[in-house]
Each structure stands twice: as C-alpha cells, then as structure tokens.
Amino acid sequence: MAEFKKKSRAKIEIPMASMPDIIFILLIFFMVTTVMRTTTLKVQVRFAHAKNIEKIEQKRLVSYIFIGPEKSGKNQGQTAVQIDDALIDNMDVIPRLMYDKLMAQPKLIVSLRVDKTSEMGVVYDVQQKLRKAGTLRINYSAKPRM
Predict the structure, then answer these.
(1) Is 145 or 141 the better-scoring residue by pLDDT?
(2) Which of 8, 24, 118, 136 is deepest in the core (most CB within 10 A)?
(3) What are phi and psi of 79, to 5 degrees?
(4) Which residues are 78's β-sheet partners?
(5) How is the chain split into domains, by residue range?
(6) Residues 6+ apart with CB under 8 A from 111
(7) Nearest to 136, CA basis, from 105, 97, 100, 110
(8) Looking at the domain that runs over 49-144, which CATH code has it been given?
(9) 110 secondary structure, DSSP code
(10) pTM, two decimal places
C-alpha cells in the first residue's frame, strides 16, 4: 500500500499583538500636531486680494487682530475690532494688551485681518495703538489674486 502524506495546511496569521501600540502612537501624534481653532469670530472678515503674499511659517508667534463689521449685537454692521475672543469697545486698552503679549512673546508678529469694506480710520487708529505698544512687526492678511 502506498502511503500518502497529508499536506499540512498551516494558517498564516498576521500578528495583532502590537496593533494597540501602533494605534496609541498614531493617536498621540495627531493629538500633538493638531491645532485647534481657539478664536470665535465676532466680526466679519472678507480679505482683500494681493499679488505678492508671504506665508508665515511660525504661527505660534502670531497674534491676530480682526477688524470688520460686527456680526451681531447692538452695533451690527459697524466696524469693530476683535482681539482673541473679545470685542474691543475702548481702543485705549489695545496698547496695554498688546504690550503684555509682546513681553510674553518677544518675537510677536501682529497679523491684521481686515475686512475689505472696513473703515480705514479704525485701521489707522489700531496701527497707532500698536505703535504705542511697541509691537512694530505687523502683517496684513490677504488672499492671493487669481
């Protein structure tokens, strides 16, 4: 009698023991690299268009000032100034607020995000207050012209 050898059919499995470690590392990576938006806009900002635009690489050095028509409230539609999450009613607080930010971050860049329909008198007043605070590194945000 002829003997037949049985072919062994070994199941090939992918080891899953390290899968939770990989998922955990990816989760930490995305949590560390993700930047969450912290400012709620209370003014409307539609950027003007420009030909020459430079991108700021270090966003953590930037403090944003939004100037545009107020979205809601008693002064809806009037040009308003917003720093962080607060609308600025009195322009005289801008120098102290920005000076404190400058002391906390000596390489501070102030980015003015101005609505294209805003009153230039308000923008000029903000520029003068920034000059008074010593924050002379000012950037004007715009969209590229297509």
Answers:
(1) 141
(2) 118
(3) -65, 130
(4) none
(5) 49-144
(6) 56, 62, 63, 64, 65, 138, 139, 140, 141
(7) 110
(8) 3.30.420.270
(9) E
(10) 0.69
